[in-house]
Each structure stands twice: as C-alpha cells, then as structure tokens.
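User: Predict the complex.
Assistant: Input components as received:
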Amino acid sequence: MSASALFGTYARSNLTFDHGEGVWLVTNDGRRFLDCGSGIAVNSVGHSHPHVVSALQEQAGKLWHVSNLHQIPGQERLGQRLIEATFADKVFFSNSGAEAMEAAIKTARRYHYDQGHPERFHIITFEGAFHGRTIATIAAGGQAKYMEGFGPKAPGFDQVPAGDLEALKKVIGPQTAALAIEPVQGEGGIRTIDPEYLRALRKICDEEGILLIFDEIQTGVGRSGKLFAHEWSGISPDIMAIAKGIGGGFPMGACLATAEAAAGMVPGTHGTTFGGNPLAMAVGNAVLDVILADGFLEEVQQKALSFKQKLAALVDTHADVVSEVRGQGLLMGLKCVVPAGDVVAAARDAEILVVPAGDNVVRIIPPLTITEDEISEAVGRLEAALVSIEENNKSKGAAG
Ligand SMILES: *Cc1c(COP(=O)(O)O)cnc(C)c1O
C-alpha cells in the first residue's frame, strides 16, 4: 500500500466498509460488523434507513443549496419542530457540533454585550468536558492534550471540577457570561452528571444572571431515552448545542436558545455558508419523523435497560477485564480494567464496533433502532472479545 494522502490526524483501523443496513456495516470483502458506535453517536436511526434515504434522494433531485440570504422552508420546518419539542424559541443551523458550540458561545457573549456588559464574556466549563476542536472549543474543553502546540489558549474560558459547587462559586465573578456542560460527558468517559448538580447549576445561573448552556451534541436526539438528556433532570438550559444524531450521518448541527438568550443575534452578527442547507434539512426532518414517532423513545428506554442488564452480567463474570457499566439510555460505557484500547481491538476481532473514550472507558452507543435480538448478538460478541483478552492474559501469565 502506498503512503496515505491524508493528514496523519487519525490512527485508523484497516477496515473499509462498503455499505450499511440498520446496525450492520458490511466490509468490502463481505464481513458483517455490528455497529455499536454509530460512527460516534451519529447514525441515530441506523445505516440506510429507508425513510431517511428517500428524503435525501427526493431533495437531491430538487435543490441542494441556496444561500441563507433566502427563505429555506426545510429550516423553518425543522426549527419549528425543535422549538415545539424543547425549551427553545429560536434555532441556528450549522454543519457540525463544534460550530453549534461556537454559536452557543457567541450567543451567550453577545447577550451580555447587548445588556451593556461586554466584560461578561467568560464561560465556565467542567473538567472532563469535550466541546469540539476549533480554537475556541478546545479552550472550552480545557484538555491540555488538545491545546498543545496550537498557540495560546483562547481567553475567556475557566474550568472547575464537575460536582464541586464551592469551586464553582469561587470562579464565578463579574466576568462570567455562562456555564457550559454536557449532561453526560461523552468523550470524557460516559460520566453522568448528577441531576441534582444540574438543578443546582440552574439555580446559580438564575441568581447570578448567568446563562446555562448544555452541550447535547452527543447526548441529544433520543440517545439518553428522552429527546434531550437534560429532560431527566427536570430543568432546561438557556442555550443548547446539538449535532451528531440529528443528521443521522448527514453533517449538521444546531444551536437552540430562548428568545431572550438569542436576542443579541441580529443581522450581521453570525452566519454560515452551508449551515441549514436544504439537503441537511430534509434529512434532519426525516430523522425527527423516526425519533418523534409514538412510542419510539419509550422503546429506546426499554432496550437500554435490557442492554445495560446484560452488560452488568458481563461485568460480573469478567471482572478481570471490565469493572462497571455507566451511562444513560443507549449512551453506555464499560469501564475497563485492562487498557480500553485492547477491548476495542478485541471487539473488532469479534466483528463488533465500539468506541474508546476517556477515563479508560469503552463506549457502547448503537443506533437507537437496534432490536432486542441484535442486543443479544452484541452482548455475545462483546463476551467473546472479553474471553479472548482473558485467554491472552492467561497464556502470557503462563509464559511469564
Ligand atoms: C462530538 C462532540 C462535539 C464536536 O462535534 P463535531 O461535529 O466533531 O465538531 C462537541 N461536543 C460534544 C459533547 C461532542 O460529543
């Protein structure tokens, strides 16, 4: 094989997939992998969902792109549906998660500027966070490994440990514009933030005139068993970033906000060439058709319960490899005893795809359309992977 033409930013597996059907991905040499990664929480309704495919095909024959200088009916429709289903009054469409977070950050800063407080531009984020890979969102995420070598950290981002209200209160000052948090930290290792803590954040924000931003890029669009994960806590944010699952594989994201929080975003303050294009909107609307259908989210909750119980049984019987099941809905994590990368590789050998995360966790985030039979198949393949690691360790032990 000749050297890759691509930037070396990924350590890729050697798998090449030809097509997908539901939770299955088929390689160019005909092997069938169970996709329990959904890309990374992207293929919310599985691969090649017929309703979504036909929505895209129909739109592709009519109109791909018009500028945001004109009316785009698909945006109005998807925006209206998101508003009706959430706390929000206004929506801005982007192409990705990081851009949705950028819009959220700009919306929060602009709100305070509009109120006569340009000095209030600091955003407080939480250790273990991930908010994207742009210059601003790596500063928001605060992880040194993502900022190293990219110049000075963008100003205006403060970070505190999640769960520590005293530390948070110390950092809040006249400069604070907003708090930004993932209700379940995804890249950070499927760490669920205590709903009690989220309610405490809401209260502090209300008292201090600070905006609350939820990053639901990974947790949103049914992944948690509710349309948005914050619904489990009973409170809502002022601003929310979404992406991943809403496009079901088509690149798109959105920033949702209350009318008050979005008040500063007047003509000229923000924009995007591609965001909200008619193709993306056709797909987003079709994905919502599936996820908002009667009973769909209840089914996600039931399936998640059954999947989690089966994973808990694996933890009981293979405690030398995995130690804990985490997560909410079909956003699940297995905390590993051995390196998480070894479990991901062994799973791949057993023809099931899972995704590594921080905190030595393996993410199990299948399409929300996975069936009970497929859940059993997935657990069987995961068990085969754990057994192969155990056997490997035993033979290493014997050799040593
Ligand atoms: C994936 C992710 C992002 C970044 O999304 P991109 O589409 O890769 O820019 C931001 N925040 C969270 C919580 C994510 O999971």
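Residues 63-291 form a domain with the Aspartate Aminotransferase; domain 2 fold (CATH 3.40.640.10).
Let me know if you want any component modeled separately.
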